[in-house]
Amino acid sequence: xxxxxxxxxxxxxxxxxxxxxxxxxxxxxxxxxxxxxxxxxxxxxxxxxxxxxxxxxxxxxxxxxxxxxxxxxxxxxxxxxxxxxxxxxxxxxxxxxxxxxxxxxxxxxxxxxxxxxxxxxxxxxxxxxxxxxxxxxxxxxxxxxxxxxxxxxxxxxxxxxxxxxxxxxxxxxxxxxxxxxxxxxxxxxxxxxxxxxxxxxxxxxxxxxxxxxxxxxxxxxxxxxxxxxxxxxxxxxxxxxxxxxxxxxxxxxxxxxxxxxxxxxxxxxxxxxxxxxxxxxxxxxxxxxxxxxxxxxxxxxxxxxxxxxxxxxxxxxxxxxxxxxxxxxxxxxxxxxxxxxxxxxxxxxxxxxxxxxxxxxxxxxxxxxxxxxxxxxxxxxxxxxxxxxxxxxxxxxxxxxxxxxxxxxxxxxxxxxxxxxxxxxxxxxx
Length: 430
Ligand code: EPU
Prior knowledge:
The protein is of the alpha+beta class. The chain has helices at 22-31, 48-59, 86-89, 97-106, 125-133, 166-176, 192-203, 235-248, 263-271, 309-317, 336-342, 372-384, 395-398, 404-410, 424-429; strands at residues 2-7, 12-17, 35-42, 63-68, 71-75, 108-112, 137-141, 144-148, 158-160, 182-186, 207-209, 215-219, 224-230, 250-255, 275-278, 282-287, 295-297, 322-326, 346-350, 353-357, 366-368, 388-392, 414-419.
């Protein structure tokens, strides 16, 4: 059992260095399966989702070398035509990218249906629609996605997504890179990690254009070659530290960021009264007075990210007045509000809308991380609260935040990570 214990009430001051983007890395690593040659990848975050993906690639026969913290060499030239290990695949949402990667590399794929954070149904019908459009036959059987390309190979086509999906856009891109002819993804997602995946593929010899707009064109190539690539900084990790500075108070310089990617978050925190200065690759957040109320609706990029919803909710819980959050991506992503209310927040949730009445102070208690971003929000709330907050189930947080404890301590936080053995009862219950 893993938990964080926080003694709150200390302002955050100093510098924090942002790691490579999780949601870019989880697409790029599976995409190395398409490459015959060595991919040198820098700025790979050391988080549990990435460690799991590396284990999956390793079991499939990839040769992986860590050159330095954050820099890996991955060579999939001799990867066997293997089934991805189901027990590992089920533990991570992004393992769906193995479908596109195996299909592209071997012409067939068997991948267990992916797991990941639970905030309602997370279908993959748009991924399947894309693979079928480029000629694959796809069936769901025995908890697996089974996809087969025709003997003549995958054939480029137009795919019009019914919903703007990050995962489907990236997966179809991966699947189509080695197809015959040209594929267009219409109504594509535009998140920074979509552009990052396209840039990675192009660095290895692919011909992808339009990433970052809503039409992406992928001209199929015969093969990809090795090369070097550096992953972009994590937009959500940066936003999390910005929200932490705003909620807790202090003066924080968030370094290694692309300020353009942060615009919707910067604008919202400014509206709430944080003083924000943008530099070429850093953002300074200063908050001294009381925060002001605001409303936010989560939307696909460049809108306000759903992955920042819970962190900004903590700011709103401590702001003057009543704020409203409307969740525009998922059916339900407000489970953490009950935990925040245990700390003294006043939040009412009705399906996709949360109404937050700001309070003067949150109070430490024992809370749970319901998922990755909800867990980050609990940490921010604990830092802002008086007394002691214990955040349980923090393995969720460690899926996506590199060295969060160390980074927060550098900023002056009093936070400790405590690992205790599982109680006998739950081990037996399994
Ligand atoms: N959707 C469908 N069908 C599909 C795919 C998606 O209906 O085939 C729906 C989803 O149910 C959702 C919406 O479309 O309502 C958007 O889902 P999307 O596919 O964009 O999400 P995802 O690929 O499953 C990624 C990130 C999430 C992030 C979302 C939205 C990864 C591994 N995950 O998920 O990140 O919330 O995009 O930006 O990249 C996180 O990092 O904490 C996280 C959950």
